[in-house]
Amino acid sequence: MQFDTFLQTLVNGLFIGGVYGLVSIGLTLIYGVMLILNFAHGEFMMLGMYVAFWAFTLGGLDPYVSVVIAAALIFLLGAAIQRGLIQRVLTAHPLNQIVLLLGVSTLLIGLVQFFWTADPRAIHVPYETEVIQVGFLRLSIPRMVAFFASLVTSVALYVFLQYTKTGKAIRAVSQNRDAALLMGIDVKYIYMLTFGLGAAVTAAAGVFLTPTFRILPTIGQSFSVTAFVVVVLGTMGNFIGAFVGGLIIGVVEVFAGYYLGGDVKIIASMTVFILVLLFRPAGLFGRKRA
Amino acid sequence: MSAVKNSASGPKPARGPLGRLWHAIWADWDLMQLAISVLLVVAIGFAPLVIRSPYYLGILILAVLYGYVGISWNIVAGFAGQLLIAHIIFIALGAYTTVVLYTRFNIMPWIGIPASGVVAAGLGLVIALITLRYGLKADYFALFTIALMVALKTLFLKWEFVGAAVGMGLRLNEPSWEKMIFSTKEPYLYIGLALLLAGILVQFWIYRSKLGKYFLALREDEAAAAALGVNTSLYKTLALLIGSAMGGIGGGYYMMYVTFVEPPQVFDLGLNVELVLAAPIIGGLGSLLGPVLGALINKPLAELIRGTLTAGRSGTTLIVYGAFLVASILFMPRGITGLIQDGYLRLKRRLVPEREEEVRRDIA
Amino acid sequence: MTLLEVQGIVKQFGGLTAVNDFSLSLDRGDIVGLIGPNGAGKTTAFNVIAGFYRPNSGRVRFGGRDITGLRPDQICKLGLARTFQVVRPFGALSVLENVMIGAYARTNDKATAKAKAEEALEALGMTGLAERAARDLPIAGRKRLEIARALATEPQLLLLDETMAGLRSAETDEVIEMVRKLSQRGIAILLVEHVMKVVMSLAQRIVVLHHGEKIAEGQPSEIVRDRQVIDAYLGEVESDAAR
């Protein structure tokens, strides 16, 4: 592979990887705090995309504006689902938790399909095909903006978790639930908040992708699987690991797509996934399991 | 639980063999579930006498299939407690094996379907060995099975030998028993019922045997089981082998009925929910009656809702199954069978009151 | 022949040495008590002997055979059974079925397993509870179930891990009697205990662990007078016994 092609592919991979990173941050946040694998994660992304679509179609809002609405709405939805449904199975057998989330996922996809059909939707913004030329690199504007938007959102979330009182409370719960309880932190409220946040950032990531992706009720599913790969790769519960893992998987996928063809590029992330599960289940940032 | 000894306070009336059977069934919840399952199978066997419409018969056929596949998952996830989420891979592999054997090697499904069971069991064995060798626990095992499903889908999408993205179908020109291709629904129903009956009996036999008890011990507490002499790796592998073999056979039958298969259709989590998970969860995971009852209630109900309430609008079945699963987990953790069992126990306590005394004495 | 020979086992977790150069031997018919303060390494030693942990060094020999590194189920089949400190009943199964799991270690036949299980239940005075769901038992019943299950595996050596913890005085006396009867059947007993009454009345020999090391071994009367033991451990316990 020639150097300029290599660099181009690398940049493309990083761009999509940033968005994967944001999606996975949401998932890893939920896991870190509640120790639950959100099998419905991709559906929050999908819903964010639909909100952006309707905001655009009905109100003419650019996705990078309507992302705020989408994030807020999905935040509320996520919090409600957590409080109403997931809270009840937090201490149940993992099988019950997984099945419940699969049920929620199926339900959400079904509802979207019911009300808005399975026809693919798309947002066509005026700048969707615009490209910046930097030397020999062609940087797609929407993809680049998606990357930076994801990066900014991730940093904002990081700052929130590190420096605000609520953020610290969330981190406290993820480190030691009982100690946090004893310190007077309302753990149930934190759970609700965390799940809402995780869902919201995922929705935001979806919105960032809308200028370049077709929107389908089932689009969340492959992102879910990719997010799991990233989260495991970046160590479950590790914020920075999720973003770094996202970049890695983004790059791996784009290179795989170059060599193997776009429809099977997911085999690359699946291979990475299986290798990580077998040989380094603790992920890049964790200790190897005893 | 095993048979209860009746502490009758007076001499028992003489009973003929039928009376003894009746009494034995009522005394033993396991036998009760078996009896109900068999009765349901027999009842459905008579269905074609009253139901003529191919549409309704088709629903029954699928319900029967879901019951059988549900049993195969129940053994792995319900009895042995293994978090095998993407069980659909065995059904998918079974379907493909059957159609490939038939289309490319001219092997009749009567041989092809059992062969599918063997191939699926082969995959099950590989999964078991990998899981044990690398110590994949709970969540990781669940994710592994899902990753495998996606990987297999991609593989099959590109593999020309199995039809790649186009898929493979059966030529339906000359129906015959030899080819297991029929022009009417009834034969499919009877083959399905035979399969379901076999599944019910195998499930019951396993449940009552040392194998089944070891599975349950594994589920309840793996460390305690090991301390009592249970080779946990061996039994986890056995559970997976049985579940995958049965799943593969179910997949083969599925292929003969739907007559066409392509990767995104069968390597699909949505199909997994409908075909594998829904029936046992709603019916009662870990019980004997659960998968059968769950399937026979689920499928027709879902179809009814889709047909009448929403005029067949897309997404309806997903909403129904999703809602069923959520409601089941939250409100009926032991499923419909659990509710029936509670009723059964209440009834029994009222009919045999002297046991109450014995029970109270033990607690004191 | 020495039934159990523990030779210099060392078990470390990361930087922590839980058990250091621990040795012990036990013959048929012995009842040996293993005592020590919390965190002394008693349960860790048990876990090593029963195959749940692999020692960093040292060996365990049972019936003349090296069992170091064998799986717990293999060790059980060789005749070494154990109970757990925090009881682990198979909740969804009946009491009888719980014990049958143990009995199945010796037979594949259901009727035989049932008979053996019923025998074990009888030995523990639990015959009337056979059909009860294990999860419905109170703590005393669960502790007995734990022993009955292990008994059904027909062990030559039974490791009892803090069986008496949480029991009332009368219940403790009953269990002491049962353990004595088990010993009379020829089963060697190694018990970890905090309740001194139990250890003093049952054990022929006591081994004392402190910070993972054996600091004393001998007859109960000697141990109670041992200076090191009193300093490390019995000081606390005397106030227990005074209650």
What does this structure look like?
- The complex is a heterotrimer of chains A (290), B (364) and C (243).
- Chain A is an all-alpha fold.
- Chain A has one domain: ABC transporter involved in vitamin B12 uptake, BtuC (Orthogonal Bundle), CATH 1.10.3470.
- Chain A has helices spanning 3-34, 41-59, 63-84, 94-116, 141-163, 165-175, 177-182, 187-209, 219-233, 239-260, 266-279, and strands spanning 131-134, 137-140.
- Chain A has a two-stranded antiparallel sheet with strand order 1-2.
- In chain A, a hairpin with a 2-residue loop joins strand 1 and strand 2 (137-140).
- The longest helix of chain A is centred in the N-terminal third of the chain and has 32 residues, at 3-34.
- The radius of gyration of chain A is 19 Å and the shape is globular.
- By secondary structure, chain B is an all-alpha fold.
- Chain B has a domain at 29-268.
- Chain B contains 16 helices and 2 strands.
- Chain B has helices at 17-27, 29-50, 54-79, 88-105, 109-133, 138-158, 186-208, 210-220, 222-227, 232-258, 263-266, 269-283, 290-309, 316-331, 335-351, 354-363, and strands at residues 168-169, 260-261.
- Chain B has a two-stranded antiparallel ribbon with strand order 1-2.
- The longest helix of chain B has 27 residues, at 232-258.
- Mean pLDDT of chain B is 89; it is low at 1-10 and 356-364.
- The termini of chain C are far apart.
- The longest helix of chain C is centred in the last third of the chain and has 16 residues, at 169-184.
- Chain C has 9 helices and 10 strands.
- With 243 residues, chain C is of the alpha/beta class.
- Chain C has helices spanning 42-49, 72-77, 95-103, 110-123, 139-152, 169-184, 196-202, 220-225, 227-241; strands at residues 2-13, 16-27, 31-35, 57-62, 65-66, 80-82, 157-161, 188-192, 205-210, 213-218.
- Chains A and B meet through helix 4, helix 9 and helix 11 of A and helix 6, helix 12 and helix 14 of B.
